[in-house]
Specification:
With 155 residues, the chain is an all-beta fold. It has no helices and 14 strands. A hairpin with a 2-residue loop joins strand 4 and strand 5. The protein is globular and about 40 Å long.
């Protein structure tokens, strides 16, 4: 699945899109939406149980897609510090892990976990971490300088 994007360069809120596309193994199909996340270009997606989770880095919003409709999960202002690009989302041991923005010290991505009820306290991932994925209780990602180093984190 893909969501968001922009219709022109430079990317601005005015050029942001709310397009949703699905790959079926041989071609892309656009999904027409009656309602859902607002147009944007700082989104991260991850499969969470039987749904697709989408976190908006632009707006600090969390949405869930059930193959037919979007459902928004109301969040407090506690996610505002991690809304800067880049934004990543993964499932780690059943919880959603959201990461984005740099720590106040200029290194490490700010992270929080959503257990389905509440967000954890903020913590940090290693410096220069790129895309990552949760594999059970292990977080695997690409990082380092240049981006060639695998980062592993076990619970």
């Amino acid at each position: 699945m893909l969501f968001g994007g922009a219709s022109s360069e430079p990317i601005t809120q005015e050029s942001a899109r709310s397009d949703m596309w699905q790959w079926d193994g041989s071609s892309w199909r656009q999904i027409e939406l009656a309602a859902g996340p607002r147009p944007g270009y700082r989104y991260a997606l991850a499969e969470h149980g039987s749904e697709l989770a989408l976190f908006s880095g632009s707006f600090a919003e969390l949405w869930f897609w059930n193959d037919h409709t979007w459902r928004r999960r109301q969040l407090g202002d506690d996610l505002a510090p991690i809304t800067d690009a880049p934004v990543y989302l993964a499932v780690l041991d059943g919880s959603l892990l959201v990461a984005g923005g740099l720590s106040d010290f200029g290194f490490g991505l700010r992270t929080r976990e959503w257990d389905g009820t509440r967000w954890s306290e903020e913590s940090f991932l290693a410096h220069n971490v790129g895309p990552f994925v949760g594999l059970g209780t292990t977080l695997v990602g690409l990082g380092g300088a240049p981006l060639r180093t695998w980062i592993y984190a076990d619970r």
